[in-house]
Design a protein that fits this description.
47% helix; 283 residues; metal-binding; ModA; alpha/beta; Molybdate ABC transporter substrate-binding protein; ModA/WtpA; single chain; 5-stranded mixed beta sheet; signal
């Protein structure tokens, strides 16, 4: 074999070896790239799945709300809206005098949310350590005189209620509407002896609806809710006895997430629209 032929063979073998090593390196690089892409895809998929799982979490279960009687119509509407927006939830209400509701909560009655008609009755709950966080005022309410339809007794002022022969009903002074009425009467230096003191504002209003009384001092929201069953008479002294309504999550709540969501709905623009349309004042 000539020296020229040997050099040619060595050159070809060297070239083939280089090409072979380049192919192996390229294959290795491709495999590495596939592994990286696979890992990224797996990571993204896991991240997406985790994010989707978190985003798909839904509220469920029952939310028990203790609320002042004057909130009945507004909160019932908001409860229905809440259930529609969160399928699988149920809002159960207990309406009544704020003082009785506060006593029930401190006595161990199971509830998730408390909406009171005054800071004083809310303080009963917070002082007992039964509220979670600080209560927030979400609306205010003002007094009004409810009379028989058409106002046959021509009542035009708070003073007119002191006239003889009129059957007037007030809320018990232990409940916010009664305390507010007493404050307005004291500010006007008027003395009024009602035919009865009622346990909550709805009971007082109902006396007029049933024509068992000629007039009652209630909230403007209750007069509006009663429609044509009563007539409403505004009086200037009511401006000095406006009640703030605080709402709070309760410490022993059994459905905290849903309870917080309900409170958020009440305080949202949507919730405030329902409340102001019912006659409540903005906080």
């Amino acid at each position: 074999m000539t020296r020229s032929v040997r050099r040619t063979r060595r050159s070809r073998q060297s070239q083939q070896g280089w090409q072979s090593r380049r192919t192996v390196r390229a294959a290795g690089a491709g495999a590495a790239a596939l592994l990286v892409l696979s890992a990224c895809g797996s990571s993204d998929s896991g991240s997406t799945a985790q994010s989707g799982s978190s985003g798909s979490e839904q509220l469920s279960g029952e939310v028990t709300v203790f609320a002042a009687a004057s909130l009945r119509e507004s909160f019932t509407a908001l409860g229905e809206r809440f259930e529609q927006e969160h399928p699988g939830t149920k809002v159960t209400f207990s309406f009544g005098g704020s003082d009785a509701l506060a006593a029930g909560i401190t006595g161990g009655a199971p509830a998730d949310v408390f909406a009171s008609a005054s800071p004083k009755t809310m303080a009963v709950v917070t002082d007992a350590g039964d509220a979670s966080g600080t209560p927030e005022t979400f609306v205010r309410n003002q007094l009004e005189i409810a009379t028989l339809p058409g106002n046959p007794d021509k009542i035009s002022s708070l003073k007119d209620l002191t006239g003889s022969g009129l059957k007037v009903v007030l809320c018990d002074e232990a409940v916010p509407c009664g305390a507010a009425a007493r404050k307005a009467l004291d500010a006007s230096r008027l003395k009024l002896t009602p035919v009865s003191y009622e346990e909550d504002v709805k009971s007082a209003l109902n006396k007029v609806v049933l024509k068992e009384a000629d007039a009652a001092v209630v909230y403007r929201t209750d007069v509006r809710a009663a429609g044509e069953k009563v007539a409403g008479v505004e009086f200037p002294e009511s401006a000095d006895a406006i009640n703030d309504y605080p709402i709070a999550l309760l410490k022993e709540s059994r459905n905290t997430d849903a309870a917080k969501a309900f409170i958020a709905l009440v305080r949202s623009a949507e919730g405030q629209k329902v409340l102001t349309e019912a006659g409540f004042l903005k906080p």
